[in-house]
Amino acid sequence: MKIEEPDNTRTIKGFALFELGFRPFFLAAGLSGLLLILFWLMVLGGVATTGSYYHGNYWHSHEMLFGFVAAVAAGFLLTAVRNWTGVQTLRHTPLALLALLWLLGRLAPLAVFQLPGWLIALLDISFLPAVAVSIAVPLLAKSQKANYIFSILLLAMGIANLLTHMQYLGFSEQTASIGMSLMLYLVITLIMVMGGRVIPFFSERGVMGLTTQSWPLIEKMAMPAIVTVALVASILPDSIILAPVALFAAGVHGIRLYGWYGKKIWSVPMVWILQLGYLWLVIGLLLLALVPLAVIQREFAVHALTTGGIGMITLGMMARVALGHSGREIAASRPIFWAFVLVSLSPLFRVLIPLLMPDWYRQSLMLSGGLWGAAFLLFVLVYLPILIRPRIDGQPG
Fold first, then answer.
1. Would you say 247 and 232 are in contact if contact means Cβ atoms under 8 Å apart?
2. How confident is the model at residue 263 (pLDDT cuts 50, 70, 90)?
3. pLDDT reported for residue 2
4. Which of 171, 223, 323, 340 has a CA that sits 20 to 30 A from residue 358's CA?
5. 396 in a domain, yes or no?
6. Any domain includes 217
7. Which residues have a Cβ under 8 Å from the Cβ of 284 and sit 6 or more positions away?
8. What confidence score (pLDDT) does residue 49 get?
9. Domain span at residue 123?
10. How far apart are CA 65 and CA 177, in angstroms?
11. Could you tell me the CA-to-CA distances from 214 to 220, 260, 338 in Å, in that order?
12. Are 310 and 339 spatial neighbours (Cβ–Cβ below 8 Å)?
């Protein structure tokens, strides 16, 4: 499955931010990945507050999932669907309006005293269904039934967002945590479905001599295993049932990752960042299995999945896709190599160090956030000109 077409290295002048979905949304994700974490560190340091619409941890969780991650998903899928179908996805004014809708969803809560709550919720909730419809049109036009799952996942994410806002608006008392949990595992499901397609492809293409393996039974169990985790973790988060379900999913996806791995990947940053991120998803599932047994707190499993798995895979995918779809050679520059190193260190300080040295919890949390922020700062600095300028090979997109 191709999702990039690198060609040559000549430079073409112009403004191309709204030529293809990855451009505005990867820029939005890079900036939000930086700014949201920096602001959260300020909140934790007592020099800022999250406002009166979202509160504390709810703001952090909501904006990282429905802001940062949603932007990455939108950029990737709008770009990939054009390649899969050969049908042009949103561009120019429609794409700019979709990006504006995402931005309004981030800014509207800041005007909570000027805007009615229902409008704040509507602006935010509308984004993911809008993306779902945008990619469904070309998929339906080409009858690509195998890819309908991506529109379905985006619509389910919209429902998860609705559950969070129901509590923020006072219509329910406990649906925000359910919505947030559901969104987290829907994102992981999306990554694992897409990862099963592109990570082995990217690995073989990027690492000379590497041949990946897959096993039909493991592939058949991969999605049901993670969907079961999503349902149990969202609806029955404290049930003992979660332990065997999460352990089984970790085993399935661990075997899957083993089939993609080869020692040579460590010489190719664009490959190891994706496989290392997938390993953190497996680690997160293993830690999740320990939560109902009261061995560890849930936050450590969640941040293994988010800071580790989601953080590394999203940064790696954005870096790779942006190069390929701008006609450039797919290779990590020195700043991006260090961005990968920094984002790889972040979960160590957010998960492993606090588990081993609880007295260093606050210091390690702040350091983890700083490492994450530095990684996304490097991404923005390097990729801003790539995202706003036309392809260097003169091709559309």
1. no
2. very high
3. 47
4. 340
5. no
6. yes
7. 301, 302, 304, 305, 308, 309
8. 87
9. 22-388
10. 12
11. 11, 8, 31
12. no
Q: How many CB atoms lie within 10 A of CB 76?
A: 24
CA atoms within 13 A on the CB side of 260: 29
207 found inside a domain: yes
What is the token pair recorded at 327?
Answer: 């006609």
Decide: 331 and 271 in contact? Cβ < 8 Å: no
Neighbours of 204 (CB within 10 A): 16
Q: Per this entry, what is the length of the chain?
A: 397
For tokens 């790779």, name the residue. 320
Q: Domain count for the chain, please give it.
A: 1
pLDDT of residue 309: 97
Please choose, from the candidates 296, 172, 183, 196, the residue with its C-alpha nearest in 3D space to the C-alpha of residue 242: 296
- Residue 291 CA, chain-centre distance (Å), reads 23
What is the CATH classification number for the domain harbouring 57?
A: 1.20.210.10
CA 169 to chain centre: 26
Q: Is the dihedral of CA 371, 316, 318, 340 positive or negative?
A: positive
* Residue 114 burial (C-beta neighbours within 10 Å; 0-12, 13-18, 19+): exposed
pLDDT digits (tens, 9 = 90+) for 221-253: 999 999 999 999 999 999 999 999 999 999 999
Q: How far is CA 266 from CA 207, 213, 275, 312, in A?
A: 9, 18, 10, 15
DSSP conformation letters of 6-32: --------S--TTSSTHHHHHHHHHHH
The DSSP 8-state label assigned to residue 90 in this structure reads S
10 Å CB burial of residue 155 (0-12, 13-18, 19+) is middle
